[in-house]
């Protein structure tokens, strides 16, 4: 339940009165579907981008917030090509087209690519987000870590020109299967306004979950769990307009989401169909260690924009700083029985400082409009993964990166768009001497610690991209694109599993990803289709292999090929009734061994549908559907069990329902029901991951009731 301190917390975001929002919803939705910011680092029409892009607009975000505040769930529902939701705080296995996406807030990286802990999706509360832009396919336009594409959270702007405007929202969430201990609450608020040349936006949210229950009423297992979690987010954006052409903007984001529980797990075995669930246990059997989750992550950004540096040139200067501390669960796999450690708990620590200068010059010729985007990026990223008890698992990696880039766009006769770009990046990665950990699964099954000599590794990569789109007619606009990404992500996983005594001998080479895509969009009077085929290759992909002797999962560098297709249809049945549906399929192989890739990268087929109905001026309803198909590519091992991330996935589906009733221009009430028909299932990751504690069932029917006040 919400603590009494909640009355001191400010809340979610709104920038218009309710009446204004209702009048503008349809217009805003249409406009957002045709604008993209992050694709080439400037604002441009989505119709001029030769690539697959998904934009989740404000209306869609608000609809999903009624059901769940989890961004992983929202993205899985709305983005074809993104793997299904994990049902947890971790996005491990939730890849984009089989590779890791780079998570960003307003273009500032939130992921920790040097040691990817798969917690990047939970970095900002949904109430502070204006829209989400998803660019699919490998890209290097923002540097390291975007082998699968980009997920960019675009935050809200102050929109009031006069007195302060804002919104306060409060809600309660509980299990409809078994109410006991499941009650939780959320409060969010925002205010925005303008004083002379200064615009301000302040948002805050606070949420407490009770226990989460599956379709049988049992408490979900605690590994990356959301039961008894406490989440708080404070976001501030200040903008000062020197004149109509020059603006200085400052933003601050604080995010914390941790599980604070007195429960303990009863660990099951997925190979024999036993689920992992939580119960009340004596203190010595409760979840050990510090609360898991992001522990007060901070982002600070300063941006200066001159919209008319020269007659045809815009300049944007960015400075950003980030401190991340993501705490993981206590694991007996981190035991060192010789030294008395029965387990351990790791923390990914990352400090980033960056500067970027981006210039945008536009030229108009007789039948050609040319845009040149060019600039330079500099980044210092210090990332490590120590254990809470003081042992070092992944030593500090100190990365210095400088990159220059040029992106060009040529619009010919208003309907042929040609894009081409290049980025050259120079990276120095320094690691001091270190020793790998001795880890024991049993007294007789231990890894061998090794002293490794550190060094500075140099990476120099030039990557290219090119694409063409022909807006032949509204009914058929084909495109083709080729893009490269240079990826040195998860070097930390390679270092901690070193089997040689010199860092120069570890396979830390960068992976160059080549991404090919062909597709089209079709817009008819009431229907829009999107379809794309893609293929990506990399000569040094990274996957896991279980070492039966040491009991440790070791990274394997080998060539990979990933391919798939996806489609989307939006159908405006009438002014008040709209339907959207998606389908996506992805597959991948280690081409050297001719073996299928596991579930850490490749997800099963996925289909979604979303129906919205504005029944009248006061009442609106929304229904969403998720279907996850089968993927059964692997055989059992010699012991008759599935291992690693190779468990078979059986299909399942879920429905969500939400609605809002506008009492008047200021007050409204809303409800949301997750897993409406109480489907009893294991999420795809829970089926495919055979690691201990992951075989946790999906959330049973869970209801949300809330109210909003706008001023």
From TrEMBL:
It is a multi-pass membrane protein. It comes from the Bacteria. This is TonB-dependent receptor. Its main location: membrane. It is found in: Cell outer membrane. Keywords: Cell outer membrane, Membrane, Receptor, Signal, TonB box, Transmembrane, Transmembrane beta strand, Transport. Residues 1-19 form the signal peptide. Gene3D superfamilies: TonB-dependent receptor, beta-barrel domain, TonB-dependent receptor, plug domain. Residues 221-676 form the TonB-dependent receptor-like beta-barrel domain. SUPFAM superfamilies: Porins. It holds the Pfam family Plug. InterPro entries: Beta-barrel_TonB (IPR000531), Beta-barrel_TonB_sf (IPR036942), Plug_dom (IPR012910), Plug_dom_sf (IPR037066), TonB-dep_rcpt-like (IPR039426). Belongs to the TonB-dependent receptor family. Residues 47-150 form the TonB-dependent receptor plug domain. CDD domains: ligand_gated_channel (cd01347).
